[in-house]
Amino acid sequence: MTLIPPPWPHCADDADPAVDPVGCRGIHVPGYTLCLAHLAPADRDAFLATLTAGMGIDCRGTTFTEQLLDDLLLTALFDPTTGRPHLGTTRFGGATFTGSPHFGGATFTGRADFRGATFTGNADFSYVTFTSDTRFDDVDFTGEAWFNHATFGRDVGFEDATFTGDAGFGNVPFAGNARFRGAAFAGNARFGDATFTHVTDFDHVTFTGDAQFSSARFERAAFLGPLTCGSVLNLSEAIFSVPVTIQVAAKEVRCVRTRWDATVSLRLRYAKVDLSDAIVTQPTAVTTHPIPFPNMPASDLTGEPSVKMTALRGIDAAHLVLTDTDLSGCVFTGAFHLDQLRLAGRTQFASVPTGIIRHGLLPMRFTRRRTLVEEHHWRAIRTPTTNWVPGAIRTADPALAPKPYDLAPLYRDLRKAFEDAKNEPGAADFYYGEMEMRRHDHHDTTRAERGLLTSYWALSGYGLRASRALGWLLLAMTTTVVVMMLWGLPTDDPKPESTGMVTNQTIRLTTDTPAPVNPSGPLHERVSTKRFEKSLRVVVNP
After folding, report:
1. Higher per-residue confidence, 426 vs 51
2. Lowest-pLDDT choice from 106-110, 283-287, 502-506
């Protein structure tokens, strides 16, 4: 507790030179030397009787119990024409509100100043109307704070405010500037259906729990953050009307059916991002921010800061750019224009299982390549023993799993995206995936085509596995050499024979080569170094 006296004439009740020489910090009630809380009951009633609806009040530093606040709002400043309390310019700076203060849908027609106030219990400002500037800077809400359906007609500030419990700002229209710079939310914060009409400042805000901005509307927010969220930042169905840069370090960011009417740059750290059915009509960039945001307080977010995309269902990817993102768990099914998706930096995809895997009685080993998580889902359901995905995913409903005819177009579009980016090695993996899905497709691929694809796969891995083609070549050559040694070479090389006759000094010669004789001796005579060398020479130099 600070021992510095406040800058206003204060009550000083219960002052103790040894412990607290300042005492009560409540401002003097006009005409008295005590604050409203320490006035004698008769004097307090007399003062409250002088107040009427719409008057201003200065209660800086005063401690309010629930009863005292009710006496002020529901009796002295109550407006019978509206059925609600009506306050003019109000100064509650440094005040303390004990219990669970309820402002009963009050209307503040003048400036409302709560800077430095403390709410020891749950604070309820629901349906309260603030027509002028409102300040809640440095306020300490030790319980829950509810501003649902409140109206802020002009600028409002919650800078460096502390919310220990849950906070609610649902369905709140912020008609002026809304500044939350440096605020700390220890519980869940809900801004659902809120409207931010002017400048929105969430710089260096910390959300320990969930931060819900679902269906919120940002009409002139050029920046959101940098902020930290220890759980889920939910921007689902939110609307951003102007170009915006969003800087967030969070465990998860949900942008389901979020609408961006202008360009957007999502600079994220640690987050799992869901862009399902998001509406993007202008260039949209999702980037892993490589370094911590400056001047941010410490958080529990540790480890690899890379952004992990979880879903792109239903999004038009023509304007989407992903930089340094992890797509190993991203669901692409249902996305549009994936062939125009741009991938920059280091992009990670799911890989095939490693090591020797037994498929029935046959051992198998998958060659390393980049795959889509949908292929993992399909293969895990088709052959559960091959360890394509963690066990939890294997329990997925088979009817909802994508089929090969769903995956082939995805691989084809992503292959084209890699080719357009001049990444031929990356495109090769997706060409392989496309051919694999066509080979396993019993719906659109005929049996004859599947047979040809199977042969193509077995012989050369669709022309992408040189080692497999080389292996088949070596096998063919080895088989030919063995056949030549056993049956292809004659026992002895036939030698030409010449026969002739002399007639009247004329010589006639006939040269003939006897037919080769197939070997018929024992095996050890046919399998010899000499015959092997000759067979190899014949095969290598036909």
Report:
1. 51
2. 502-506
HSE, side-chain direction, 13 A CA sphere, residue 218: 29
Rg (CA), the chain: 40
Count of C-beta atoms within a 10 Å radius of residue 259: 16
Q: Is the sign of the CA dihedral 388, 430, 333, 458 positive or negative?
A: negative
- Number of Cβ within 10 Å of residue 188's Cβ equals 19
The count of other CB atoms within 10 Å of the CB of residue 236 is 20
Q: Quick check: 204 and 184 in contact, CB under 8 A?
A: no
CB atoms within 10 A of CB 70: 16
Q: Note the pLDDT tens digit of each residue in 474-487.
A: 888 888 878 877 77
**Run of H or E including 531:** helix 529-540
Q: How far is CA 314 from the centre of its chain?
A: 16
What tokens were used for 275? 């862009």
Q: What is the pTM of this model?
A: 0.85
Per-residue pLDDT reduced to its tens digit, 114-161: 999 999 999 999 999 999 999 999 999 999 999 999 999 999 999 999
- The two tokens of residue 183 are 């605020």
Bridge partner list, 119: 97, 141
